[in-house]
Amino acid sequence: MKKANHQGRVLKDHKQVGRKLIPPMMQLPNMKETSFRDNTLPCLVWISAIFLRESDKKAVHYITEFLIKCKDIINDKKMPPLAFLNNFNKLSEENKRAIVNELNDDAMLQFLRDNLEHQHHLLEDYPLAFIFDGYPYGVDKDDALDMLKEDVDALLDRYTLHSTKVQTTAMVSMMATGKLCISSEIDLPDFNAIFTDPDSDESKRVASFTRCNINAGAGFGPVEGGENEWADSFWKQVFSISECE
Fold first, then answer.
1. pTM of the entire predicted model
2. Which residue has the higher pLDDT, 209 or 241?
3. Any idea of the CA torsion for 158, 162, 168, 169, to the nearest 10 degrees?
4. Number of Cβ atoms within 10 Å of the Cβ of 146
């Protein structure tokens, strides 16, 4: 019986340069590698919080639909990929008011507030602070700190199932909002596999494909605004909070 050649399937889109294999996403122009912990983790920590405390189905639905609605409300092709928290800081105050006004009676706004109020309570200049304007919320500081630690700890290893779900959701939302265009020549994996069959070979393809894309720096290039000031601020604040315990 002929063995299935999973390796051949996974690597067939790679480009060989000498002895090095270049993944498809790293072949795209203007891509650059970034440090996941230093730059990307602070920008995906909001998605991490939601996946820790909600079902996968609800998390994917509300996160993706929120980002799609933001795209529709702002209606600007230059809008950066909002899956990355830092990019909310690049929106105008008018854009932010429009998002809140449009979604004020929508269940997804309350869903976000319920899951992110601990981050807003602890972090100054929180990029999603605008969704809490005029909203009466209350959270114990010690409880908030414990939750933030969980949000961060769960993302420190980008190879875990939790981290992969977070990164996959970010990437799929970028595709859904037109912020990431994939060539039709690239054999896309079935992204649902990471949720429905996490131990499968297809799930491994999803994980590899997603990590490569995120590691390529999507959302952090010059077109999206250059420096990631939020990441620097986040780590300084987290260090300060931890030191004060």
1. 0.82
2. 209
3. -130
4. 12
Positive or negative torsion for Cα 161, 191, 30, 45: negative
Q: Which of 87, 61, 62, 92 is nearest to 74 (CA)?
A: 92
In sequence order, the 6+-apart residues with CB closer than 8 A to the CB of 68 are: 173, 176, 177
Q: Mean pLDDT across the chain, nearest whole number?
A: 84
Task: Express as a percent the part of the chain with pLDDT over 90.
Answer: 61
Q: Give the CA distances from residue 237 to residues 90, 169, 212, in Å, rounded to whole numbers and listed in that order.
A: 20, 26, 28
Position 100 scores a pLDDT of 95
Q: Percentages helix, strand, coil for the chain, rounded to the nearest 5?
A: 60, 0, 35
H-helix segments, 123-177 = 141-156, 161-176
pLDDT digits 0-9 by tens, 61-92: 999 999 999 999 999 988 899 999 999 999 99
Token duo for residue 87: 């990019």
Report whether 8 contacts 21 (CB < 8 A): no
Asked whether the beta carbons of 176 and 61 are under 8 A apart, the reply is: no
For residues 160 and 51, the answer to whether their CB atoms sit within 8 Å is no
- Identify the DSSP state of 38: I
Question: Scanning the structure block, which residue is given the tokens 């998002």?
Answer: 99
